[in-house]
Amino acid sequence: MQQHSAQLRWEQHTQRPLFALALAFAVAYAVPIVRPDAGRDVVRLCSAVEWVVWAAFALDYAVRLVLAPNRPAFVRTHWLDLGAVLLPMLQPLRLLRLVSTLLLVGQRARMASQIRLTTYVVGAVVGLLMFGSLAVLSVERDSPDGNIRTLGDAVWWSFTTMTTVGYGDHAPTTGLGRMLAVGLMLSGIALLGVVTANIAAWFIARFEKDDVEERRQTEAIRELTEEVRALRGEVAALKGTAVE
């Protein structure tokens, strides 16, 4: 119990700093893509920030693992966190650091009880649009046959891909770009399912609440009717006694 409380305290105290680091990661990831003419020192600084943020999330996972009351169970239930921590070690690609950091931020957001589902969904949509646009722009910009050359093209493509509209005016031509497209489409479908389920659950809860209230009122009316009948019987008995 004490270890479990320590784990919860750690998650509560580190939640905001980790999200601040995630914002720093977003800026560091975006600068070299939006400004391809940035100097070598700027690019190195941004890369260092990305690795520091990933290392912070990896440290967070390690600490939560140490504080967990049942470590094997923690690893089994947080396998996605472990995969995100190990992913950038396989090959030092910026895209792998992007994917792993997004996964880790998403897992920490799910553990935060004060973050409501709507806020999480909105944040996920914005994050996927932003990072999907930046990632596909970095991959497709130098492709000879590519037609995603500007940030505006990338944002438009990400939005139509996530909503599964797919106008076809912009499309990735590289293998990595198409993998990003698949990820965005699956993410968009998943988020749409979450929103639909959330709305359906709200309506069901509302109808159940109305049904409970209606049953309560019906029961109150029935009890009141029984009391009125009893009073009528008592009044009739009193009248009969008075006549005698």
Automatic annotation (TrEMBL):
Lineage: superkingdom: Bacteria
Family annotation (InterPro entries): K_chnl_dom (IPR013099), VG_K_chnl (IPR028325), Volt_channel_dom_sf (IPR027359)
Keywords: Coiled coil, Ion channel, Ion transport, Membrane, Transmembrane, Transmembrane helix, Transport
Primary localization: membrane
Membrane topology (UniProt): Multi-pass membrane protein
SUPFAM superfamilies noted in UniProt: Voltage-gated potassium channels
GO cellular component: voltage-gated potassium channel complex
One GO biological process term: action potential
Protein name, per record: Ion transporter
